[in-house]
Design goal:
Layout (H helix, E strand, L loop, with lengths): L3 E4 L5 H10 L4 E4 L14 E3 L3 H6 L3 E4 L4 H9 L4 H4 L5 E4 L5 H12 L4 E4 L2 E2 L2 H5 L3 E6 L2 H11 L3 E8 L3 H30 L3 H10 L5 H8 L5 H23 L6 H15 L6
Parallel strand pairs: 1-2, 1-4, 2-3, 4-5, 5-6, 8-9
Antiparallel strand pairs: 7-8
Helix pairs in contact: 8-10, 8-11, 8-12, 11-12
């Protein structure tokens, strides 16, 4: 049985890791805070003292921390995951990071005989818990195939999009469009107000009509409360920035209308709460 390690037990990673251990895989976890591992008490989970200890106990390791710096730190620091992993190990990067970060880590890992795939996710913790998390994988065919049994404990669908980094590009595209759609949804519901249409009624129409979007549905489900989206603004800002950086590096012009709407969304979410 494949031994799995997991780092990053937050609102997204925690349910993913729980699906792995519930799927019958021996699981080792590591976290900076003891409270993060408490939900795994009573399960077939071992808590490692360091990331390197986790790496030594694992054949496949999933990483679901926040930023490029966090991913690099937990994998490559002196007591990082890679320091403990044996040759033939496999690292799965679930964090949303720059594709170049994945490539740099893969180069270092390859020198130790360890493979890397990127496998960012979309859908949130509840989707992971219900095995309906979208996983966008990038990497060599044989590496993604090896990771598939572990990923399928929480993924549906699992899409292999191409070589290493392809999953990150797809995830950035998704978040770029979502950010723009948040702004469009906010403007649409404000427009409904001006037209004299109840917001909830407008949301019901959009939910069954061709004009609907996931962003509009999320806003409607929250009672049009933007608190959650405002909390996500720093992550959305990071992902929009990364999208534009990747586009510039590849000589691909980002669509002007989507870019403008995404940037306006970030300004709105970062600003004061509207009284409306």
């Amino acid at each position: 049985m494949t031994r799995v390690g997991f780092v990053g037990l937050g609102s997204q990673g925690g349910p993913m890791a729980r699906r792995i251990v519930d799927g019958g895989f021996p699981l080792t976890v590591w976290a900076r805070r003891a409270s993060s591992v408490e939900p795994f008490a009573g399960t077939a989970t071992t808590v490692a003292g360091t990331p390197a200890e986790l790496g030594a106990a694992s054949d496949v390791v999933g990483i679901c921390v926040v930023s490029d710096d966090d991913v690099t730190d937990v994998l490559l620091r002196p007591d990082g995951v890679l320091a403990g992993m044996a040759p033939s190990g496999l690292i799965m990067i679930h964090s949303t990071v720059h594709p170049v970060t994945c490539q740099r880590i893969a180069e270092t890992a390859a020198a130790r005989g360890v493979a890397v795939i990127d496998a960012p996710v979309s859908g949130g913790g509840p989707a992971a818990a219900e095995r309906r998390l979208l996983v966008m994988a990038g990497g060599a065919d044989e590496d993604v195939a090896r990771a598939r049994p572990v990923l399928e404990t929480f993924a549906n669908p699992l899409l292999h999009l191409g070589p290493l980094g392809a999953g990150q590009v797809a995830k950035l595209l998704n978040n770029f469009v979502f950010t723009a759609q948040v702004g469009l949804a906010l403007d649409t519901f404000a427009f409904a107000d001006r037209l004299g249409i109840d917001r909830a009624a407008a949301a019901a129409v959009l939910a069954s009509g061709t004009g609907g979007s996931r962003a509009a549905a999320i806003l409607a489900a929250s009672g049009f409360n933007t608190t959650g989206l405002r909390g996500a603004e720093p992550l959305l800002r990071k992902d929009v920035r990364l999208t534009l950086e990747v586009a510039a590096a590849r000589g691909a012009d980002a669509p002007a209308a989507v870019t403008a709407l995404a940037q306006d969304t970030l300004t709105t979410l970062a600003g004061p709460v509207s009284a409306s």
